[in-house]
Amino acid sequence: MANETATDMDFFHIECAEVLDISGVAEFHARCLEALEAQQNVMLNASQVDRIDTAALQVLGAFIQDVNTRQQTVQWEAPSEPLCQSAALLGLSEMLCLPIMAEKQ
């Protein structure tokens, strides 16, 4: 079990859909705005993400920048391999605080 420094109640939880693309990015963005307004730290559960497009990655990037500006924190809960790979392809892994995936040979 991982060491926990904060209780589950200290986080605003956002469950990421299996497909995060332009068709659902407005709903995802609205949820992100709720998290900012709640002024809590954020837990993003991205374990189910199977596909993500550039629009959703842009929303994530802007959201994480806003969270950092407000001195809140974002933690990833089990980011999926497709999410990490898509972010890496666009050079966004570091900005999104995602693990950098090794290239497959």
Protein model, in words:
The protein is of the alpha/beta class and 105 residues long. It has one domain: STAS domain (Transcription Regulator spoIIAA). Helices cover 37% and strands 17% of the residues. It contains three helices and five strands. The protein has a three-stranded parallel sheet. A two-stranded parallel ribbon has the order 2-4. The protein is globular and about 30 Å long. It starts with 10 loop residues before the first strand and ends in a 16-residue tail after the last helix. The model is unreliable at 1-6 (pLDDT under 50).
Note the topology:
Blueprint: E1 11-15, E2 19-20, H1 25-38, E3 41-45, E4 51-52, H2 54-69, E5 74-77, H3 81-89
Parallel strand pairs: 1-3, 2-4, 3-5
CATH topology-level name: Transcription Regulator spoIIAA
CATH class: Alpha Beta
CATH superfamily: STAS domain
Q: Which of globular, elongated, flat, extended, rod-shaped describes the shape?
A: globular
Share in helix: 25-40%
Residue stretches low in confidence (pLDDT < 50, at least 5 long) are 1-6
Per DSSP, the total helix count is 3
Helix/strand class = alpha/beta
Tell me the fraction of residues in β-strands, as a range: 15-25%
What does the main sheet amount to?
3 strands, parallel
Task: Round the mean pLDDT to the nearest integer and report it.
Answer: 87
The whole-angstrom Rg is 13 Å
| First and last CA, distance | 33 Å
CATH architectural group: 2-Layer Sandwich
Instruction: Report the order of strands and helices.
Output: EEHEEHEH
Q: Could you give the count of β-strands?
A: 5
The quaternary organization reads as single chain
In the sheet with the most strands, the strands line up as 1-3-5
Number of domains: 1
